[in-house]
Every structure is written in structure tokens, then in C-alpha cells.
Amino acid sequence: MADAPAPAPTPAPAPAPAAAPRGPAARTVRTLIRLDRAAHRRWFLPALAVFPLGDYALPFLPNQMLLMGVPALHPRRWRAIALTFVIASAAGAFLTATAVQSAGPRLLDALGLPAPGLGGLSEAGGTVTRYGVWALVLLALLPWTPRATVLVCALAGVPPWTIALAVLAGRPLPVALLAAAGARAPHLLRRFRRVDRVLTEVEARRATPAGRPVKGSDAPPPPAECPPADTPVPKSGQRNPCGDD
């Protein structure tokens, strides 16, 4: 009696797709995708400047992620991106100091920011009292925006132009380091899980061919193109690409 044929091997299951980022990571991905698509437009840098400009009133903006992620996607423009962040950060400090000195503590209450003597403002106030405006220059060397120190200097009566120049003197070094790290050494950034997850998602959306729907979307496939008018009519039994019999 002949041996029964061996059963065909069962194919290995396809790996499950990585879960898409949610929450703040998803908002960062959407922001990076929109900026990436507009990278070659004239309004790209002004649109990018909105984020460091509004960082004093909206501290939840993903400025550090954008400062590293955008140069990683466009490494040749990292200098222009860093310069945009520096100028916008100084302009934001000037506008914030002007607004605070014009409206006073009532503006802080309206924005929901802590009053002087509480939290970070208390620590920044002691530093400014000891070292003056040079404390703002030193704190501007940190990776994050010195929001509390700018507010304390404004409430202390430091002229807005002095505050803006102090921020302008301190921000170039940390901003240039973050932007250069994103452009020159993206493999170092990918050691951080959050950064790697965001960049991987953006690159996956970036690599999707134009006109082809993303897997899992409800968008219909593009229609088949009809042949030119001088194309010979298909013979009987051959399939017409346009679907006309």
C-alpha cells in the first residue's frame, strides 16, 4: 500500500501590525506628517515658527519632538529649522513679557497660569533675584523653554527687549544641538521608544505611494486608466481594459 502524501506545511501567521500611536503621540504624528508634506512650500518655516512662538502660553505643544523629528526627516534644512526656533522663541518671550506687563497678574489668572510665589515661579523668582537677567540667559541654555523665568522677569519690570535678547543669547546652543542630533544622528534618537515610535509611524505614512489607499482604509482603489485613442481595438475574446464589450 502506497504511503499517503505528507500534509502541506501550514504557513506561518503574518506578524500583527504595530499599534498606531494614541494620545499625544498621535497628535505629534499628525503634526509631523502635515509639516513633512509642506516642507517644500514657502510657508513651511512660518508655520513651524508658530510652535515655539506659542510655547509660552501653550506648554503642551510638542516642540522638542518637532525640533528633533523635522530635521530627521529633512536633514539638509536643520540649520534653517534651528534658526526658526531660536527667533520664534525670542519673539514669543518679547510678546509674553509685553502682554504680562500690560495686563499684570490678571492676565495670568485668565490664562490659568500660577501666580507669582507658587511652583516654578517661586524657584525662578529666587534665581532672578540672585543673578538678575543673567539667570534667564543660563536657564535658556536648557533644552526646554524658560517660561517661568520669563514671567518672573516680566513681573519684576525687566524690559521686554532685554528679556527677548536674553532668550536670544541662550537658545541657539540647545536648539542647534537638538536639531543637529535629529539630522546627523537619527539612530541615537531611535533609542528612545517614544521618538522611535513617532518617527516610524511618520515614515510609514511617508512611504505610502500616492493614489494607493492605506491598508485598512475605506477609500476605493483608483479606477483603471483607459488606453489612448490610437490603441488597436482588442480582438474577440480579449479583455477590454475599459470594461466596454
Automatic annotation (TrEMBL):
Origin: domain of life: Bacteria
- Annotated region Disordered: the residues are 1-23, 204-245
- State if Transmembrane is listed as a keyword: yes
On whether Transmembrane is a keyword of this UniProt record, the answer is: yes
Record field: transmembrane:
81-100
Any idea which UniProt keywords this protein has?
A: Membrane, Transmembrane, Transmembrane helix
Biased region (Pro residues) positions are: 1-18, 219-231
Protein name (record): SNARE associated Golgi protein
Q: Which organism is it from?
A: Streptomyces inusitatus
